[in-house]
Structure formats: structure tokens, C-alpha cells
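>> received
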Amino acid sequence: MSTVLKRILYAEDEKDIQNIIRISLEEIGGFDIKICSSGEELLASYEEFSPDLILLDVMMPGLSGVETYTALKELPQFDDTPVVFVTAKVQANEILAYKELGAIEVINKPFNPMELPERLRQIWQAR
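>> returned
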């Protein structure tokens, strides 16, 4: 596993949030990022992109973030890449459930795009 966070794979179905994420993480954060519009697309992109970190929107049409994460863990090439859920639903019991599932952190929507790259670096260092 990489010691420096560089490559981030993100599943997000909302185009506006995709654009904000691209600016935040590529232009401000300097990360290599691949944004997928669905859980299915993320699963298809995982091996080729080989991310250091995965961000999953919880609520997406088709596979939800949780369903995507469950399917990801079943891929033979999955190497326990750290996963962070991104959600507007931030009840304490839900956050606990995501962490029990195996997520290293949960980020609330809306988030501050100027602070997101540093927040991800802090999560990465603390894992």
C-alpha cells in the first residue's frame, strides 16, 4: 500500500458534486482522481485505476455506496484499499454502521471543498 495519498477513486452520481470534487481534489489538492457516476462504474474501474483511497457516496441509484463496498470486498483483486463514505445522512448510528462495515471515516455533505484535500490527508495519515 502506498505511503503517500495520491490516487483517489470516487463514486458520485450528482454532476454538480463531481465538478466540485474535481476542482477540490485535482486543482487544489493535487491528487489523481477518477470520478465514477455509479457504483457499477467504480467496480469496473477499480483494478485499472488502482486507487490509494476510495470515496463512496452512500445514496446512489443502482448500487448504493454500501452495496458497492460490499461488492468491492468480494473482488479477487481488492487489496483492502481504505474506503471513506460521503453522505448527507450523518446520524451517529449510521456513522458507526459504516465504520463497522470497514470504512475508515465518514465525511458529511455538504463539505468545504477548500478543506477537503487536507481532511483526506489527515484521514489517510490516521488510518
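>> The chain has one domain: 7-119.
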